[in-house]
Amino acid sequence: MNNKQQAGAIGLDIGGTKIAAGVVLWPSGEILRRTIIPTKPARGGEAVLKDTHDLARRLHDWARGEQIEVAGIGAGVAELVDCEGNVTSSCTIDWRDRPVQQRLSEIASAQVESDVRAAAVGEAIFGAGRGHPLFVYVTVGTGISYCLVQDARPFKGAKGNAIVMGSSPLSTVCTHCGVKLRPVLEEFASGPAIAKRFAQGQNGESTETCEEVFRAASNGDKDAIEILTSAGEALGVSTAFLVNVLDPEMIVVGGGLGAAGGLYWNAFERSCREHIFADNSRGLPIVTATLGVDAGLVGAAAVVFAQQQDRRANYAYETK
Predict the structure, then answer these.
(1) CA distance linking residue 264 with residue 184, whole number of Å
(2) 103 and 35: one domain?
(3) pTM of the model
(4) Where is the domain boundary, 72, 95, 119?
(5) Residue-wise over 196-206: b if at least 16 C-beta within 10 A, else e?
(6) How many domains does the chain fold into?
(7) CATH number assigned to the domain comprising residue 206
(8) pLDDT tens by residue, 245-254
(9) How far is CA 159 from the centre of its chain?
(10) Which helix (H) or strand (E) holds 320?
(11) Residue 18, CA distances (Å) to 40, 58, 137 in order
(12) What residues make up the domain containing 191?
């Protein structure tokens, strides 16, 4: 490497299965020294936090050895995170009320963020949302979530909970039998839900991933086609609700299913446009995210870059 010092940040994408980490350069977004380790959340939150801390420390030491100026550490977590960077849920990793941000700050200035907001910031700075002042990022994979992004900044809400899209039940009553229903989008249209629904139709035979359902649909399996179509339609209804409430200029869809295309995507887009109320919003762009599997890692680092830009802008304003 040449003697000119480069700027970068450490990005940590912390999910229930793996922790993907790397050093991300500014302003290119290039990933250096990528590392993936298993999360193993069943060991407990402290064990996962120690692994995360050690991984961040190793990357920080490597970056300094390569003359990379580390602006900070960004950590995207598959949990609810409040506006101060505190983890407030424990659905995947038991980090509720643990000092995750403080522990990482022992290494360098750190910012903990929800994984969907981190990915949304990454798309705003480096991906499909670049140059678009107001868009909604929707992620569809193991879970389903969203983030409103304005001027490359994620809207967090009062308590950091403005990401809940697919996990809350919608109560309704069946008009045919009168039974009260509580459908949950994430239990119907996410990757695991699609696999589970297909397995139930195959006499309970195990289906590990929804990729098998996509293969079955491509081979003409009627059950698989119906499941993917209905799942896409359900996602479209919920996304259209976001459009009706938030009035974005564009929808960016990420996650494993977000990039799947085909039958699921076609049903989703058709349903979404059908359920958008305003005529002049119905034709808004609905595009796939461009960062792909690196969205969480790059996005976590992008949170650091965005925070750094905010500090510079505030300093410039105060010194006028």
Answers:
(1) 18
(2) yes
(3) 0.91
(4) 119
(5) bbbbebeeeee
(6) 2
(7) 3.30.420.40
(8) 999 999 999 9
(9) 18
(10) none
(11) 8, 17, 22
(12) 134-290
